[in-house]
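Sequence in, structure out. Go.
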Amino acid sequence: MERFRLLENWIRTQFPDKSFTLSPASADASFRRYFRVTFSDGTLIAMDAPPEQEDCAPFLHVANLFTAAGTHVPVALGQDLAQGFLLLSDLGDTTYLQALNDGSDNVIAGENRDKKADRLYRDALAALLKIQLASQPGVLPDYDEALLLRELNLFPDWYLARHLKVTPRAAQKAELESIFQRIVQNNLAQPKVFVHRDFHSRNLMVTTPNPGIIDFQDAVYGPITYDLVSLFKDAYISWDEERVLDWLIRYWEQARKLKLPVASDFADFYRDFEWMGVQRHLKVLGIFARLNYRDGKRDYLAALPLVESYLRKACERYRELNPLLTLLDEWNINEQPEVKVGYTF
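Output:
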């Protein structure tokens, strides 16, 4: 409540002659909170990022990079970094997830969900290509071995230990560490670009121009397939593998035309995509467990079965990942029943 009063007072200093109301706009997996500031003549978004836990500077830095790349991100209209407050342009309240799940996006009359998805994801890929084309080393933190492994270790620390209450045996622990090294070796060998790091249906807004991109403050310089995994193996919405394969081929063809450093053979590119996915799925299982047990954000547990399913499918597909599948079986991490479409590369 104290933070809310501080934020309200700060906004008053920015607009001393205007009255406004503050209402919750959204929440995310961090300590940041967002409020919609409603004036008689429009709205803004206020970000509350407690300085002892969050830093607004990376948000502003990445916003400048993504704006320069030609994508649609919130514009910072006011800032107080000492208090952890930002005033941002309002990109609305319709995420891709909402538009695809509840039909709130009626831009094209009579458009069914599949056509809507194709349109929205075509726009998302166009924005992602712009971000990747703007990439350069030394501008964002490296998605290096230490960070990749730190993320992977969320899986045993939070998902196994806290969620499943499993303590791996010494042999299992050694096997898991060996698998982690194999995954990271693949990830580090991939070409590097700017990586949003959570480029998915809850962080893409239906806007004009489309999409509006939010929650990018953790962006890094890392594997080119990472944001594609976030987008197409989304923890909050799923697509059949045939459709994902089609979207990926379209991306790969465009990326090659634009001279982005994707593998020249699609099978190699797809393998990199899948292996990057394994890293992200393990990380996400750990993060979602931590959000529940440490932060009391229980809604994230509902997404675990889908992420588990993504993980198992990738492990089934590649012989080198079969030992991880064996461990998942030993720990009773089961795939949810689903129509299977199989591909081998």
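Check: The chain has twelve helices and nine strands. The beta strands are 21-27, 33-39, 42-48, 76-80, 85-89, 192-195, 204-205, 212-213, 220-223.
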